[in-house]
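[Q] Does anyone have a clean C-alpha cell version of this?
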Amino acid sequence: MKQFWKKHRTVIITMLLMIVIGTCMHFVCELAGSENIRKILGVVFPVNETSWEHMKMLWYPFLTAGIILSVIRKNKGCFGGFVIGGTIAMLTMLGLFSFYQSFTRTSVLALDIPLFCLVIILCVLLGLLLSEQEWCKKALPFWIIWAGIVTAVIIYLTYQPGPGYVFLDNTQLR
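[A] Here you go.
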C-alpha cells in the first residue's frame, strides 16, 4: 500500500482536490452578497442552476491542475493533457446531463454528484495519459490557444446564454 501511495499520490491528490474545489465552486456565487459581485464572480463560478454553468466546475479545475502539474512535473504535456481532459469532461457532462434530464425533467443530485466525480476521475486519468505523449508536449502553443478559446466561450455564454436546453434552469426543465 505504501508503494502504491508513493507512486500515485500526485494523481490521487489531484483528483480529490479537483472534486472538492469543483464542488465548492458551486456555492461561491450564492455566498456573494450583491448582484454586482455575483456578476464579476460569474466569470469563474456558476451563477445559476443550468447545466452549462456547472461546466465551470469542471473547466477551471482542469485548467488550473494542468498549469500546476506542468510546473511541478516540468512536463509541458500536462497542460495539453488537462486541456483535452477538461474539454472532454465538459462535453461528457453536458451529454450525460442532457440525456438523463430529458427523462427526469429535473436535476437529480443523487446522479449529479457521482457523475461529476466519475467524469473528473476518468478525465484526469486521460489527461495524465495524454500528457506523456510527444505530440501533446509539442503542441503547447495550440493548447494555450484552445484553452483561451474555451475560456472565452464560457465567459461569453455566462453573460449571453444561448436558447438551448443546456441553458435552461432546473425550474425551466419541466
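[Q] Thanks! Anything notable?
[A] The chain has one domain: 2-172.
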